[in-house]
Amino acid sequence: MTDHADQFWGRLDDTNSGMLGTTDHARLVPMSHYADREAGVLWFITAKGTDLAETAATGTKPAIHVVSDGGEGLYTRIHGQLSLSDDRAKLDELWNAVASSWFEEGKQDPDIQLLRLDLTEAEVWATGGSLSFMFQIAKSKVTGHKPDMGEHYTLTF
Questions:
Q1: In whole angstroms, what is the distance from residue 103 CA to residue 110 CA?
Q2: Which residues belong to any copy of the General stress protein FMN-binding split barrel domain (predicted)?
Q3: What are the backbone dihedrals phi and psi of residue 98, each rounded to the nearest 5 degrees, phi first?
Q4: Would you call 58 helix, strand, or coil by DSSP?
Q5: How do the domains of the chain map onto residue ranges?
Q6: Which end of the chain is more exposed for a tag (fewer CB within 10 A), N or C?
Q7: How far is CA 156 from CA 18, 22, 28, in A?
Q8: 94 φ, ψ (degrees, to nearest 5)
Q9: Which among 82, 48, 39 is positioned nearest to 63, based on CA atoms?
């Protein structure tokens, strides 16, 4: 795995949400993601009646997940194929206090729906984070040079 891929997955692990939507709908919604680096997949826990779940119920859809976290210095647009999953073992693995807040019957709630985003590409802007940003801006004012805002790259999965 490349250094860029390691950086991407490491920073993505340290963030917990982004905006997810299918490319055939302009509407993106906030969703917590759960990264599976080895499989190249992001998982989401949602309810069966949501727009995303209903859209994915008609078949696999091209989708986008946008993550913006200044503290972690990660800004990324992730593309992939969104599908439904009934993988109960994966739900057991992902289940946490945040997810339980949304479902009255816990993991057994019949309304739970797993979404699986198989990644195809990610465009990434990786910075040093918010403190580094402030330092780079101040440094540019003193030196007259443009600030170093980090790396910009694309990953293919």
A1: 9
A2: 3-148
A3: -65, -50
A4: coil
A5: 3-156
A6: N
A7: 20, 19, 22
A8: -85, -25
A9: 82
- For residue 17, what pLDDT is reported? 94
Handedness of CA 37, 87, 76, 30 (dihedral sign): negative
Task: List the CATH code of the domain at 3-156.
Answer: 2.30.110.10
* Binned average pLDDT, 10 residues per bin, the chain of 157 residues: 86 93 90 97 97 96 94 91 97 94 93 98 82 53 65 94
Q: Which helix (H) or strand (E) holds 19?
A: strand 17-22
The answer to whether residues 28 and 91 touch, using CB atoms and an 8 Å cutoff, is no
Among candidate residues 58, 9, 35, the one with its CA nearest the CA of residue 117: 35
- Residue 83's pLDDT is 98
The contacts of residue 82 (CB under 8 Å, 6+ apart) are 20, 22, 52, 55, 56, 60, 61, 62, 63, 115, 116, 117
Identity of the amino acid at 139: K
Could you tell me the CA-to-CA distances from 84 to 50, 53, 54, 60 in Å, in that order? 12, 7, 9, 8
Helix (H/G/I), strand (E/B), else coil: 127: coil
